[in-house]
Amino acid sequence: MTDLRRLDLNLLLTLDVLLDELNVTRAAGRLHYSQPAVSIHLARLRETFGDPLLLPGPRGMRPTARAEALREPLRLALAALQQAVAPSAPFDPAAASNAWTVAATDYSETTVLLPALAALRAQAPGTRLAVVELNPGRIARQAEEGTIDLAFHTTEGAPPGMRRRALFTERYVLAGRGGHPRLRRKPSLAQFCALEHVIVSPDGGGFHGVTDEVLGQAGLTRRVVLSVPHFLFVRGVLETTDLVAMLPERLLRGSGLHTVAPPVAVPGYEMSMLWDERVHREPAHAWLREVVVRALSQ
């Protein structure tokens, strides 16, 4: 049996052309080799396969039975190899049928994916998008395994080693229902602490957040009376009660809720798009990332 590790790809390319031309001179012209070089290749091929492969004929050369058996498999193998090493074709969104999976919270669904969805559907109508719950501790593994294509997470909490692109910087505002009697103007720090607050606790059940950390540094506390796991539920709570919440400003656009600047300086955060190195140069993936970036820039 011929050892593939000892085969020279250039010899196989020469054999493919020789079997097509059945003439050393014409084969040399197609390969841009000299005629002696092709003859040397043929001699090495005969040694490798233990067969003369091409014999003198009345009008050039005639293949042996072994050469005839090699002709079609060799052509198919070289064509497959050529396709494998060819540069990636440009991505055509109009003809694409990709199915992408992205990991997001309800916050990033609203602030990142929703703005990008119209462009995605218009430009790539044959594609599909699955949104799965963001699990911060599993982002890197899911992306490496290919179970997610993108994830949206704060830059500060992003797993090290992942590709990242910053999308925007978010800030917190104090929000309540329209006509809230305590939010007609910016409350004082004491009034702010006396309000009944709702807090988003992604891990579930927490009554302490970044606002409480800032207040605690000044020896102050606020009244957190409700803890929920999702941002969008908070909007419904604020619309139907007198509770207030410190919420990311982008989440409230078009909500109808009333917002004021808080009397305490709560640091915001940077939102990033994350992906694995293995798909960084893949044309379809690069296109998807640019759709998100362009949508947010508009």
Quick recap:
By secondary structure, the protein is of the alpha/beta class. Helix content is 41%, strand content 21%.
Core attributes:
alpha/beta, DNA-binding, WH_DNA-bd_sf, LysR_subst-bd, 3 domains, Arc Repressor Mutant, subunit A, LysR family transcriptional regulator, 3-stranded antiparallel β-sheet, D-Maltodextrin-Binding Protein, domain 2, transcription, 298 residues
Q: What is the helix tally?
A: 10
Classify the secondary structure makeup into a structural class: alpha/beta
* CATH A-level architecture of the largest domain: 3-Layer(aba) Sandwich
Number of domains: 3
Q: Please state roughly what percent of the residues sit in beta strands, choosing from under 5%, 5-15%, 15-25%, 25-35%, 35-45% or over 45%.
A: 15-25%
Sheet with the most strands: spatial strand order: 4-3-5-12-6
- CATH homologous group name of the largest domain: Periplasmic binding protein-like II
Q: Could you name the ranges where pLDDT drops below 50 across 5 or more consecutive residues?
A: none
Mean pLDDT: 93
What is the chain-wise order of helices and strands?
HHHEEHEHEHEEEHEHEHEEEH
CATH class of the largest domain: Alpha Beta
Organism: [Empedobacter] haloabium
Protein name: LysR family transcriptional regulator
Domain HTH lysR-type: 7-64
Family: Belongs to the LysR transcriptional regulatory family.
